[in-house]
Amino acid sequence: MAQMGIAARERDLEVLVRAKYPLIYILSWEERRVESLLVRVAARLNQRLYAWTVTAGVQAIDTVRPVEVDPGARSALDVLMHVEQSREAALFLLKDFHPFLGSPQVAPDPAVIRKVRDLVPVLKKSRKTVLFLSPVLRLPPELEKEITVVDFSLPTPEEVEEALDRVIRSARSQGGMRVKLTPEERERVLQAARGLTVSEAENVFAKSVVIARKFDSGRGGPLIRPEIIIGEKKQLISKSNVLEYYEAAEEMEYVGGMDELKAWLRKRRLAFTEQARAFGLPEPRGLLLLGVQGGGKSLIAKAVSTMWQLPLLRLDMGRVFGELVGASEENMRSALRLAEAVAPAVLWVDEIEKGLSGLASSGRSDAGTAARVFGSFLVWMQE
């Protein structure tokens, strides 16, 4: 999926606020990045910026240190009342508000939903905007037409490179370490870190420096190593019950025949380099392998992972489908978001025809669940 630069993301949010969009839902894990962006937007618009959490109430965060404004407003209804009664031109950032908007297992609080809807005309007539910030999207039907969703995508390569430079400067100034990376080593490190959040990237860069300095000092080589970063990505996969991280050891030499496919794979491997991106060569999107059982389809997926030196993720279609209404669609979205977070990677969807069988009768047999899951997968592949 294409990544939006931080400047474009900031501009789009500023446009929404200027246009008096009353409710904006920001989908992101990265609170610090979102806060930093909103501080700049609020300053340009000459508006205050307040943040709310269920633990601290309302705080002003456009200052050097957070300042308590209404620590007693810790419930969802309390903070909505605070926003309604405020006379300031301000942005109100409500963190982790999604539990109050319901889930597939729990119905939303009708009083909270009604209060949010009551706020819309009030916000439209004033210079106030409510922004929900959460890593999970929860939109009850009553609010679908009122809320604008902004997917705060993972950091761009430039932002990850800035994080790398910060860690290198810190290691040099505080630890007196000589951290030097050749252009080739730097590209491999940045490639391995693609898909991590800024915080995750900074943590794993620092972890790599500590490991290399403390335990591998006699080994030589760079202090920041791609294999340590890739190992950190395995931790992300271990938290999922739909995706499985597969340790591939199979080589392409194990695959008999398929010479044209092997030649294509060798050529397309070069599309992951920085030179290929600068030239405008797109990275390979996908490969559909058809054949009888035992024909080598799964072996090819494993061998591609080894050849391209990319992590191999196995998507278990049987685990995607859940019992509760909406759970299957959420499982697929979560799996695809996680695959993006670990990218670049090889996503191995084995036996896809069994998981998505019955599409023609989906509307009658499962209320359209299989069709929606397959649709989400196709849209993701296209983008």
Please sum up the structure shown:
The chain has 383 residues and is an alpha/beta fold. It contains 16 helices and 10 strands. Helix 13 packs parallel to helix 16.
Question: What keywords describe this structure?
Answer:
three-stranded mixed beta sheet; Rossmann fold; 383 residues; seven-stranded mixed beta sheet; 10 strands; 16 helices; alpha/beta
Secondary structure blueprint with pairings:
Blueprint: H1 6-18, E1 23-27, H2 31-44, E2 48-53, E3 57-60, E4 67-70, H3 76-85, E5 90-95, H4 110-124, E6 128-134, E7 147-151, H5 157-174, H6 183-193, H7 198-214, H8 226-238, E8 243-246, H9 259-268, H10 274-279, H11 297-308, E9 312-315, H12 317-320, H13 327-342, E10 346-349, H14 352-355, H15 362-365, H16 369-382
Parallel strand pairs: 1-6, 1-7, 2-5, 5-6, 9-10
Antiparallel strand pairs: 2-3, 3-4, 8-9
Helix pairs in contact: 1-2, 3-4, 5-7, 6-8, 8-13, 13-16
What does this structure look like?
The protein is α/β, with parallel strands linked by helices and 383 residues long. It has 3 domains: 6-151, 3-Layer(aba) Sandwich (Rossmann fold), CATH 3.40.50.300; 157-224, no CATH class; 243-382, P-loop containing nucleotide triphosphate hydrolases (Rossmann fold, 3-Layer(aba) Sandwich). It has 16 helices and 10 strands. The protein has helices at 6-18, 31-44, 76-85, 110-124, 157-174, 183-193, 198-214, 226-238, 259-268, 274-279, 297-308, 317-320, 327-342, 352-355, 362-365, 369-382, and strands at 23-27, 48-53, 57-60, 67-70, 90-95, 128-134, 147-151, 243-246, 312-315, 346-349. The strands form 2 sheets. Strands 4-3-2-5-6-1-7 form a 7-stranded mixed β-sheet, with helices on both faces. It has a 3-stranded mixed β-sheet with strand order 8-9-10, sandwiched between helices. β5, α4 (110-124) and β6 (128-134) form a beta-alpha-beta unit. α1 packs across α2. The longest helix has 18 residues, at 157-174. The protein starts with 5 loop residues before the first helix and ends with a helix. The mean pLDDT is 84.
